[in-house]
Write a structure and sequence with these properties.
about 375 residues; six-stranded mixed β-sheet; five-stranded mixed β-sheet; 9 helices
Length: about 375
């Protein structure tokens, strides 16, 4: 599996570089950890073309790691590199069966849209004075991989499939009706997304993708700031960034999904399971940057190991001989990666000194501010 991924990235590097040089817009995407929710793949984008933040539920830009990371990344694209930046808050759902949709929102597509709107409004406030940055909501219907473009009022929604017989300028007119405040460069980029997504949908039809293939089939759990960094195909990997409020809880849930895939027969134990802890680092970085990236990757590995060890289904995964752990640093420029050593027996997660403090803070906040009331 790993040799295959290296080979894919060698072949992908030229396509990725060509894509980044040809486009006027840099894309930043928040998406669910679900392996079926691969917006870039649904538009035939080369691996690593977009900056992704995969996490269940809405992301709060007030959370330091996420807020500072996306603020810095978008600032670099829009100001330092003088590019246009498009920040997409995305959600997923299934038309054929609500329970093939997003569990984080109770399989409720409307709730997904409302939560993405909450996130999108806050992200928009970060760059409300910067014309080269735009924020929008885009959904993915995972039965067909049809895109859903959602307007600011949430009621105005248009699918890519509804534009299948239109010329490019007609598609731009439709998209301008959904996003009237967007500059022309963003409208053109969205029309490009529509064209690529329609090609992908047609390819799926030709492959006779069946409904039974729409449930979870992941065999990889990837965690860290480079969780999407090895570019696995649709429905092959659960990707979790450390950006949400409860990343260890998300890891445990993902472990349960992998186990359920085995038990249901959707995947085979012969395929094995890959647990991947990753972070980004540039080859041109200083020694301190490289060392910090290695420490960070091991830290993510410790978190993953700790989360799975504390969960019954996670323990079953770790005990299976087909389960492999990989800790890696991903080059932020080439998306190549190198494995680093990590010993679970020396995991800092075994030191439990923070748990009492976490419990104390949670109890205090609950006592002072009961859930459901406004600050």
């Amino acid at each position: 599996m790993l040799d295959f991924r290296r080979d894919i990235f060698r072949k992908n590097a030229i396509d990725r570089e060509r894509y980044l040089r040809s486009r006027k817009v840099r894309v930043f995407l928040t998406r669910c950890m679900d392996g079926r929710h691969m917006l870039g793949s649904s538009m035939n984008m080369p691996f690593g073309s977009w900056t992704e933040y995969p996490t269940p539920g809405p992301l709060d830009p007030g959370r330091p790691l996420f807020g500072r990371d996306i603020k810095s990344a978008v600032y670099k694209a829009a100001v330092v590199d003088n590019r246009n930046a498009l920040v997409i808050s995305s959600f997923h759902f299934s038309k054929s069966n609500p329970h093939l949709g997003c569990k984080a929102f109770g399989y409720d597509a409307e709730k997904s849209v409302r939560n993405m709107n909450w996130q999108n409004q806050r992200l928009a406030q970060l760059w409300e004075d910067e014309k080269s940055v735009a924020t929008i909501i885009v959904g993915l219907e995972t039965d067909t991989h049809d895109l859903v473009f959602v307007g600011d009022d949430l009621a105005n929604q248009v699918t890519a499939s509804s534009m299948v017989d239109m010329a490019d300028d007609q598609r731009q007119d439709v998209l301008r009706g959904v996003y009237p405040s967007l500059r022309q460069v963003f409208i053109e980029e969205l029309a490009f997304f529509v064209a690529e997504n329609l090609k992908y949908q047609e390819k799926r039809k030709e492959a006779h993708a069946a409904i039974e293939q729409l449930d979870h089939q992941e065999i990889v759990l990837s965690y860290g700031t480079a969780a999407h960094g090895l570019g696995f195909h649709v429905n092959s990997a659960l990707a979790i960034g450390p950006y949400g409020d409860y990343p260890t809880g998300h890891i445990a849930i993902a472990g349960g999904i992998l186990n359920a895939n085995w038990e249901s027969g959707r995947t085979s134990r012969d395929q094995g399971i890959l647990l991947l802890a990753t972070t980004f680092c540039s080859k041109s970085g200083f020694h301190a940057d490289v060392m910090q990236a290695e420490f960070e990757a091991r830290y993510f590995a410790n978190q993953m190991f700790h989360a799975l060890s504390g969960d019954e289904k996670g323990q079953e995964l770790l005990a299976d001989k087909g389960c492999k752990f990989l800790v890696a640093v991903v080059d932020s420029e080439t998306y190549g990666w190198r494995e680093i050593e990590w010993d679970p027996n020396r995991s800092s997660a075994e030191v439990d000194v923070m748990s009492p403090l976490d419990n104390y803070v949670e109890q205090e906040l609950t006592a002072v501010h009961p859930v459901g009331k406004k600050w």
